[in-house]
Amino acid sequence: MKSNVDISLKNIYDKRDYIFLKDVLSAIQLSLFNKKSFGIFNVCSGKAVSVKKIFDIIKKVITTRTNLIDSRNIKSANLSKGNNQKILKELKWQPKYLSITSFKTNLKKIIIYKNN
Fold this sequence. Notes:
By secondary structure, this protein is of the alpha/beta class. Helices cover 40% and strands 14% of the residues. It has four helices and five strands, in the order ββαβαββαα. The strands form two sheets. Strands 3-2-5 form a three-stranded mixed sheet. It is elongated, with a radius of gyration of 17 Å. The relative contact order is 0.28. The mean pLDDT is 79.
């Protein structure tokens, strides 16, 4: 029988703009070969996901029983998300892994890869 694992996190309701490495690399590649646009581009998803949501996805993937302990017990959230309008407009770039479904799928791939 597997034992429970307790994970203590702070600020589980904070939301951040996470982006997958493949999306970052595609944006860099596109910007390197574009001769018309230059400057600083925000490479981001433009969407925010909470720490709790990521934990819930991970919990579904791993086989160990895992409990989340909110060590600060704060129900408010800080929001940090990027604005990718310039890169979208000038380079026609947007992340491929934007939806929560693709986010879950790719997070599962990362977890499975790390466990093998």
